[in-house]
Amino acid sequence: MQPSGKLIINLRGNDKSFVLWNGTESYYKKLRSAYKEVSKENYSEHLYFGFFTLCSATLEYSLNFILADFAVKKFGPYKYKDYCDGYINLPLRRKLFMSPHIISEGNFVINENHNSFKKLERLIILRNRILHNKEFLKEFEIPDLNLEVSKDGIIVPEEKTEINFEFEIKDNPIDTLNQKICIEFGNSLGDFKKYIMTPSINGELMENPMILKHK
Q1: How many independent structural domains does the chain possess?
Q2: Residue 28 located in a structural domain
Q3: Integer angstrom CA distances of residue 180 from 94, 134, 176
Q4: Sorting pLDDT into bands at 50, 70 and 90, what band is 95?
Q5: pLDDT tens-place string over residues 150-209
Q6: How many beta carbons lie within 10 A of that of residue 26, not counting itself?
Q7: End-to-end distance of the chain based on CA atoms, in angstroms?
Q8: d(CA 60, CA 127)
Q9: How far is Cα 69 from Cα 53, in angstroms, rounded to an integer?
Q10: For residues 215 and 213, what is the distance between their CA atoms, to the nearest angstrom?
Q11: 202 lies in a domain?
Q12: Which segments of the chain are extended strands (E)?
């Protein structure tokens, strides 16, 4: 279980009180519901992108929360944001990689060989490719047709009325999403929640399948 929020209360009434609200369960509730849908035998392909995007958002929000929670506990409500901004503005893959080390103040590191960490890395890479996808001109060659240009236009030799050429088109990243990948991403987020997020919030981070003691 996780607390719904963290309170810093000034009982004397001569200063501010603060709350850091934990909204992660709202994400995971929707993720569990979507996981059931995407796991069904009769599924709709459009669910893949929705589920994938929800996985990405859940991971990033969760990381941002546990880093903010750590910064508040470590530096207090007036100083935490100077540190928290630096943490949460890290690229998402680096944020995932560094969070256990930051939160444990150097005592633990993430297990890079754990399958769920590798799946979450893939999620992040695919997220960047799909959400920031773009196209540029691609060059290709066609054979010389020896065309003649006249005042009436272009004259195409009869034997050149059919030409063969080819060009390479890479698979669109969004087409790599399928049921198997979505289920793997969902399971990996479950491991992240179990082994990293919940222990971090509860101050119980310790060595486990996804966390190793820093040597």
Answers
A1: 1
A2: yes
A3: 26, 26, 10
A4: very high
A5: 766 666 666 555 666 677 777 888 989 999 999 999 999 999 999 999 999 999 999 999
A6: 11
A7: 30
A8: 11
A9: 24
A10: 6
A11: yes
A12: 5-8, 18-21, 108-110, 148-150, 153-155, 211-213
The arithmetic mean of pLDDT across residues 125-143, rounded, is: 84
What was the pLDDT predicted at 139? 81
Q: Which residue has the tokens 């993720």?
A: 31
User: Which of 215, 206, 192 lies closest to 65 in space, CA to CA?
Assistant: 192
Burial zone of 51 (CB within 10 Å; 0-12 exposed, 13-18 middle, 19+ buried): buried
Helix axis angle, 24-38 to 179-192, nearest 10°: 150
Assigned token pair, 128: 């960047």
Evaluate whether residue 149 is within a structural domain.
no
Query: Rounded distance, CA 49 to CA 95, Å?
Result: 23
Assess if residue 155 is contained within a domain: no
Across all residues in the chain, what is the average pLDDT? Answer: 88
pTM score, two decimals?
0.84
**SS3 for 110?**
strand
pLDDT score at 131: 87
Place of tokens 């059931």: 36
